[in-house]
């Protein structure tokens, strides 16, 4: 499945088809412009930087153009092309002193001290590796949105951990205790009527269940904990940022622009770092 051919043209037409004026975008604390299709943001408190993956082209093209930027907590670019040598990097996670980035059908391992890609783990048969999350033991989980698969890097081996249609085209990932919380995109052939939702995968037996009521919410992308009882989740197509309770109920926190991608959230400062992929920027918003 060519995700770019299916997703990008269709979602680009949704707003125009609605015939509605876009809502006013809430003010940001700051915006970092000049990024190139930024997909994921990841704060590193120790280094006081936000890593930002830049697809820089079509999300499925193996063109060697992708890279990761370093942005300060003040929104100033420290180094735009800090880590290079990738095709279309998306999800990011830190584990065991290394930075990991999904890259179409590979998982790149990056040395945070130098920005050098020190390893690439192949994912044979993967179609669209997307988000990345790590557990307390250092295992790294990667969603493959195209093939309803979750891969895992454990003990140096990168292999299929779970393949199931019950994943409903997994996008965002979050390890939470003994579960992997999945923000699903929903069926990719009928995006205008059927939305994705939150799912919980048991790390012990890999069973998949809806979070709470399992009510469909949107074409979900990034997910982070917002409070003890809820998550903050983005909808790439609608450009919305939701609070989704563990009961499954959702409420919109803000509406941004189409391409609102894989966010990060700092609970200490209540700041959400949100890549706006189609706008080529990273924005910081205070979430009250």
Structure notes:
The chain is mainly beta. It contains one helix and 24 strands. It has one helix at residues 3-18, and strands at 30-33, 38-44, 49-54, 66-72, 77-86, 92-95, 98-103, 106-110, 117-122, 129-134, 140-144, 149-154, 157-163, 170-176, 179-184, 198-202, 208-210, 220-227, 230-235, 240-245, 250-255, 264-266, 271-276, 281-286. It starts with a helix and ends with a strand. 46% of the residues are buried.
Chain-wise SSE layout:
Blueprint: H1 3-18, E1 30-33, E2 38-44, E3 49-54, E4 66-72, E5 77-86, E6 92-95, E7 98-103, E8 106-110, E9 117-122, E10 129-134, E11 140-144, E12 149-154, E13 157-163, E14 170-176, E15 179-184, E16 198-202, E17 208-210, E18 220-227, E19 230-235, E20 240-245, E21 250-255, E22 264-266, E23 271-276, E24 281-286
Antiparallel strand pairs: 1-24, 2-3, 3-4, 4-5, 6-7, 7-8, 8-9, 10-11, 11-12, 12-13, 14-15, 15-16, 16-17, 18-19, 19-20, 20-21, 22-23, 23-24
A few lines on this structure:
The chain has 288 residues and is mostly beta strands. The protein is 6% helix and 49% strand.
């Amino acid at each position: 499945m060519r995700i770019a051919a299916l997703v990008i043209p269709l979602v680009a037409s949704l707003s125009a088809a609605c015939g509605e004026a876009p809502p006013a975008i809430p003010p940001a604390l700051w915006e970092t412009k000049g990024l190139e299709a930024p997909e994921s943001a990841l704060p590193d408190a120790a280094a006081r930087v936000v890593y930002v993956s830049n697809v820089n082209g079509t999300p499925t093209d193996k063109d060697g153009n992708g890279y990761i930027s370093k942005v300060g907590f003040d929104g100033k670019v420290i180094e735009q092309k800090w880590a290079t040598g990738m095709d279309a990097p998306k999800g990011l996670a830190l584990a065991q002193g290394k930075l990991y980035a999904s890259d179409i059908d590979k998982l790149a391992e990056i040395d945070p001290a130098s920005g050098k890609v020190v390893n690439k783990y192949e994912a044979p048969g993967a179609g669209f590796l997307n988000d990345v999350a790590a557990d307390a033991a250092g295992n790294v989980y990667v969603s493959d949105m195209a093939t309803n698969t979750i891969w895992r890097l454990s003990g140096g081996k990168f292999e299929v951990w779970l393949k199931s249609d019950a994943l409903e085209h997994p996008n965002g990932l979050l390890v939470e205790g003994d579960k992997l919380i999945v923000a699903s995109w929903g069926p990719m052939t009928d995006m205008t009527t059927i939305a994705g939702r939150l799912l919980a995968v048991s790390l012990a037996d890999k069973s998949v269940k809806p979070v709470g009521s399992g009510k469909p919410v949107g074409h979900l992308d990034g997910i982070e904990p917002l409070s003890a009882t809820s998550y903050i989740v983005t909808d790439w197509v609608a450009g919305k940022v939701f609070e989704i309770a563990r009961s499954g109920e959702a409420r919109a926190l803000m509406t941004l622009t189409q391409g609102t991608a894989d966010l990060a959230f700092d609970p200490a400062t209540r700041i959400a770092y949100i890549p706006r992929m189609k706008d080529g920027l990273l924005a910081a918003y205070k979430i009250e």
